[in-house]
Automatic annotation (TrEMBL):
Pfam families reported in the protein's UniProt record: Maf
Cofactor(s) demanded: a divalent metal cation
The name this protein goes by in its record: Nucleoside triphosphate pyrophosphatase
Keywords: Cytoplasm, Hydrolase, Nucleotide metabolism
EC number: 3.6.1.9
InterPro entries noted in UniProt: ITPase-like_fam, Maf-like
CDD domains: Maf
Reaction(s) catalysed by this chain's protein: a ribonucleoside 5'-triphosphate + H2O = a ribonucleoside 5'-phosphate + diphosphate + H(+); a 2'-deoxyribonucleoside 5'-triphosphate + H2O = a 2'-deoxyribonucleoside 5'-phosphate + diphosphate + H(+)
Lineage, top ranks: Bacteria, Bacillati, Actinomycetota, Actinomycetes, Micrococcales
Length: 215
């Protein structure tokens, strides 16, 4: 069974490869800001972090299926996974900081405290020439940053550029690994893709998870 990843995230690709899965990657083409605004206007309220991550994961997977699936180029024969991650601290959703000053401010805010990482997933079954079914799931993990981190350490981390394009502004599998004191939940969830959630979705769609492992 082939897994198609609706993402070009190196972190998600690394998680899957480490779990014995070699996905085919497609870059989704989704105007996230516009799509979220449209969905919130439809609901008449703001999306919660779990709703937001699953919704964006769904949009990414559906875009890839639309362009490359049975009704598109026909390249896809397998399962298509879309995902998104958000970090919640003080009831505020923190996406990718993008700018160094934002990353530094957030790391100082997080220091000595615990935040929640939400990882949303959407899996579409595109086997045997048809789009058959889909299912979604959101997993969470709490992340506690060490309380004794010096400003100089945080400044040095931000200066590497690593946290700028990461939800929450840190990477447990990177340079910030020594800064994270405790994680509760699936470690892969913190990196951006929950392997336990993926396994449950694969089973829900009627397939066997070991079938994703590369030969």
């Amino acid at each position: 069974m082939r897994l198609y990843l609706a993402s070009t995230s190196p972190a998600r690709l690394s998680v899957l490869r480490g779990a014995g899965i070699e996905p085919v990657c497609f870059a989704p083409d989704v105007d996230e800001e516009a799509e979220v605004a449209a969905r919130e206007a439809e609901l008449g309220r703001a999306l919660t972090a779990p709703e937001l991550t699953e919704h964006l994961g769904r949009l990414k997977a559906e875009d890839v299926v639309r362009r490359h699936g049975p009704d598109g180029t026909g390249e896809i024969d397998g399962l298509v996974l879309g995902g998104d991650s958000m970090f919640l601290l003080d009831d505020e959703i923190l996406g990718k900081p993008h700018r160094p000053e934002v990353a530094l401010a957030r790391s100082k805010q997080h220091r000595g405290r615990t935040g929640v990482l939400y990882s949303g997933h959407w899996l579409i079954d595109c086997t045997a020439g048809a789009t058959r079914a889909a299912a979604g799931a959101v997993d969470t993990a709490t992340v506690t940053l060490a309380s004794d981190l010096a400003d100089a350490e945080l400044e040095a981390y931000v200066a590497t550029g690593e946290p700028l394009e990461l939800a929450g502004g840190f990477a447990i599998d990177g340079l910030a690994g020594a800064f994270i004191e405790r994680i509760e939940g699936a470690p892969s969830c913190v990196i951006g893709l929950s392997l336990p959630a993926l396994r449950r979705l694969v089973i829900e769609l009627g397939h066997e998870y070991p079938g994703l492992w590369r030969d």
